[in-house]
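User: Could you go from structure to sequence for me? I need the amino acid at each position, not a summary. Structure tokens:
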């Protein structure tokens, strides 16, 4: 009985992983905000620029939220995923970031695993944590 339950549980997790990967691959664009809610100021620690670069390397067309969009995206905002970065459980000299991708209705498509960093300098710590969180999407 335990074996059957274990097999069913593994199958469910596999289906969820494949389903979220299919959803992410069906989008052409990623929209990145110029300012994340947990930071004061636009492009603080150059996190927004780094987010854009990471998604560009994965083959997406990436735009900032205050930038002019191509005509097809201007007509249909649902062609894009909307990226956001959140800080989770802030600690002393430890930064934990996660990346969320949402659709045009604000529904969560996929959330990254927690990216952690304990580097001493602020800029390096935030950028390392973001890169670690992005590894969740690197195979998508």
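Assistant: Here is the amino acid at each position, in order:
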């Amino acid at each position: 009985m335990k074996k059957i339950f274990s097999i069913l549980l593994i199958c469910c997790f596999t289906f969820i992983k494949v389903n979220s990967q299919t959803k992410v691959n069906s989008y052409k664009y990623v929209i990145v905000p110029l300012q994340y809610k947990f930071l004061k100021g636009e492009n603080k620690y150059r996190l927004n620029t780094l987010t854009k670069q990471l998604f560009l390397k994965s083959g997406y067309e990436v735009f900032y939220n205050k930038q002019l969009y191509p005509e097809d995206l201007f007509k249909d905002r649902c062609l894009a995923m909307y990226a956001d970065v959140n800080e989770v459980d802030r600690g002393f000299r430890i930064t934990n970031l996660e990346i969320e991708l949402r659709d045009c209705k604000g529904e969560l498509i996929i959330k990254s695993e927690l990216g952690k960093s304990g580097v001493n300098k602020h800029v390096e710590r935030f950028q390392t944590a973001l890169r670690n969180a992005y590894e969740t999407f690197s195979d998508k």
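One structural detail worth keeping in mind: Helices lie at 2-25, 47-57, 71-75, 122-134.
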